[in-house]
Design brief:
Rossmann fold, seven-stranded mixed sheet, disordered N terminus, 7 strands, alpha/beta
């Protein structure tokens, strides 16, 4: 009788700013692991510039990758695609959240569904998201609502992940796990 693995599958959140190298890093992590590679894409080609970005991302992946598009129902895609023998890369949570906001869907309900799917992931899962809280305060109510929702989403997903990495200028920095901090002042 096989001994069950008591530890959950690895869940990794990769954060970074725009063009920081976070997607390249996340893809490298996924490719370094055994098993089928599944790329869950959240982008929608709504204009020529975005179509070109999507094409560049596709060209960066070789024949080992299978792509699933999930611009809105990301939780279902994660439930369907994670499992033994495969590694799933979701790129990215920022575009997914933008899609949800623009669609008029219930952001809180969509976020809860996503969190439940991440928590129940049946295999290795790599999630990419932008760190948006270090820039200027957006000048529109929608921009501020997005920034706030993205910050909360990143915190919630980070709590569920075994590891969190921040990529800046192509350099990964491990944020989680962290050793306990001695908070005494001396």
């Amino acid at each position: 009788m096989p001994i069950p693995n008591p530890s959950p599958p690895l869940r990794l959140l990769v954060l970074g700013g725009a063009r920081s190298g976070k997607s390249r890093f996340a893809q490298g992590v996924a490719e370094a692991n055994d098993g089928q590679k599944v790329y869950v894409a959240t982008a929608q080609g709504l204009d020529d510039e975005m179509d070109a970005r999507i094409a560049r991302h596709r060209a960066d992946r070789d024949s080992r990758w299978r792509t699933r598009e999930a611009p809105l129902d990301l939780g279902q895609a994660i439930r369907d695609e994670t499992g033994p023998g495969r590694v799933v890369l979701v790129d990215c949570l920022t575009l997914w959240l933008s899609n949800v906001l623009i669609s008029g869907a219930d952001v809180a309900a969509a976020t809860e569904a996503l969190k439940a799917a991440v928590d129940a992931a049946g295999g290795p899962l790599v999630l990419v998201s932008n760190e948006v809280g270090q820039g200027i305060v957006p000048d529109t109510p929608l921009g501020r609502a997005f920034r706030d929702a993205q910050g909360r989403l990143n915190q919630d997903i980070a709590r569920l992940c075994d590891r969190v990495v921040l990529v800046a200028a192509g350099c990964p920095v491990l944020l989680k796990p962290v050793p306990p901090l001695d908070m005494r002042l001396q």
